[in-house]
Amino acid sequence: MSEYKDVWVFSERHDLMLEMLGKGREIADKLQMELGVVLVGFNVQRKADELIRYGADKVYLVDDQALELFQLEAYLSVLHSLATSHKPQVILIGSTRNAKPLAARLATRLDAGCAPDCAKLSVDEQKRLVCERITYGGNAATKIAFRAKPQIVTIPSRAFEKPAPKDRTGQILKLDVKIEAPKTEIVDTKPLETSAVRIEDADVIISCGRGLEKKDDKVLLDELASVLCGQVGCSRPLAEDRKWFTEWVGLSGHKVKPKLYIACGISGVIQHVAGIRDAKVIVAINKDENAPIFELADYGVVGNLYEILPALKEALERQLQ
Amino acid sequence: MKRIIVCLKQAVDVSQLKVNPTTRQLMTASAPRKISDFDKNALEEAIKIKEKLGDVEIFTLTVTSEDAKAVLREALAMGADKAYVVNDPSFRDVDTLGTAYVLAEAIKKIGEFNLVLCGETSLDSFSGLVGSRLAELLDLPQISSVRKLSFEGDVVAAERVLEDAVETVKAKVPVLVMVTREINQPRIPSLMMIMKASKKEIVTWTAADLGVQMDKLGSKIEIMEVLAPKTERKKIRITGENVQELADKLAKALIQEGVVGRR
Ligand SMILES: Cc1cc2nc3c(=O)[nH]c(=O)nc-3n(C[C@H](O)[C@H](O)[C@H](O)COP(=O)(O)OP(=O)(O)OC[C@H]3O[C@@H](n4cnc5c(N)ncnc54)[C@H](O)[C@@H]3O)c2cc1C
Description:
The structure holds two protein chains of two kinds.
Chain A: E1 7-10, H1 14-30, E2 35-41, H2 48-53, E3 58-63, H3 72-86, E4 90-94, H4 99-109, E5 113-115, E6 120-123, E7 129-135, E8 140-146, E9 151-155, E10 171-174, E11 185-191, E12 204-208, H5 218-228, E13 231-234, H6 236-240, E14 260-264, H7 270-273, E15 281-286, E16 299-302, H8 305-319
Helix pairs in contact in A: 3-4, 5-8
Chain B: E1 2-7, E2 10-12, E3 33-35, H1 37-53, E4 56-64, H2 69-78, E5 82-87, H3 96-110, E6 115-119, H4 130-138, E7 142-152, E8 155-161, E9 165-172, E10 175-179, H5 191-197, E11 201-205, E12 221-227, E13 236-238, H6 243-257
Parallel strand pairs in B: 1-4, 1-6, 4-5, 5-11, 6-10, 7-10
Antiparallel strand pairs in B: 2-3, 7-8, 8-9
Flavin-adenine dinucleotide binds next to helix 6, helix 7, strand 15 and helix 8 of chain A.
């Protein structure tokens, strides 16, 4: 059992890798282990030093033209081969749409467990890694420990803060591994038609739900957002059913952690609330005084959003003068 | 004849789940069950393919430790031709690896197939691992996060939605595809379809029927705790005579919280 050691971090996305390094460092220190990073791609060697500055002790570098694009079988074969020869105890994998299947398949190939989408990680008194994730449509938080090694955990983006870089040294191990040929062929890639700014980055979010009657009424939110330098979001039905937005906030959409979240005409169904749990302050504006959102908000205003929003904008402009 | 196997999970209907407010325990045992939403999209997609290509047979496959017949009747009414259930009390505490292992064994027993369709994740546990684990165990090409699918000859073409890109991917059958909820709107079966479905077959297997090795069912993870999250919100109701007063008080509160301000 003790042959497994070290905490590893992998993501095909550099920003997510840096976010995980902070948490990875903390866990490695608590377990008195080293922190390794798996750096995979083509012409990526230049990123290795930065990963060390962000906390890595070792960078396992596999640089190959066959790894230029993320292709499941190719990346899987690299991670599998490294994990088999170096036996990490914990592997943190950034939970992207590409890498989550990778994590699941790596766990299967290694006959290991996988705890997906964990936004909280800790080490308990018995030095066990404890992972926490949201389940049952936002109704529950589930705590998971492992019975087998390696322990594979996927980490959503924005779950952890990027640490501050430090002047530190580490080791870069350049490795050659056999790369499996992909079983699928990418024939086209185009950018996703989404808003230019990432809502996860917003400090202030004004969100609307089905209480908004027409698409054009979004302007009410836009105006308040511009006063607060915030962004506009929505509940799922406005995106999925009405197509007024392309993205939404919630369990199946974006999980956000702004300082201020203003929910207008949103009832507060658990799947929506699951996406805003980490907001510092939640304000609810709803005309139904029994709407569940009031139980989940810091400040509640019972009223018509069409009246409250313009008045709030005016009041804030005045008071912020 | 082409054959599509759709993996269907019988999930806890999370919208009807009750929580004990003092213990924060979920009352999952008494909550109703249904086909996991994402899997319903997978089934709908299979039916659409059948409508287009004609010569297609759709089997659903469910691994469970509970009775699932009522839920599977709905799948048959929607348009599946035959439902397979592997029901065994020994599956009660399996993790995603155990579930995928039993699914894989059942698919091997079913035999030939062209396409395995799964939901991207499940309504209740929301893990999103089983489809990928199954692809690994069956050594299949896998296409996940699919919002558009076409099946012609022996090639599957799919549009995948990634965080910032849309990727079109092709693979030769047999292939495993995981679909998102965007892909379609599952149909609601008519009374006629429900009646017709009562004649369709539900094949029930146990672990022993598949020769499942019990040691492969041991969970690799331990669920330590499942509790409703604590909500620690202030729940302050802003009151006032008129809209102006409400807005003024709210603005003041937000400024005091330090969450708004000029930058
Ligand atoms: C698996 C699954 C995942 C899901 N994921 C998500 C998710 O990620 N995000 C998400 O948002 N949803 C999600 N949903 C959908 C979710 O269950 C709800 O259907 C949705 O959140 C409800 O949106 P809503 O609050 O805008 O609409 P409603 O529930 O219809 O609420 C509208 C509210 O507006 C109020 N209102 C109406 N007019 C006014 C007015 N003039 N002024 C003030 N208030 C007014 C009403 O009182 C009501 O409370 C998911 C569902 C499932 C099954």
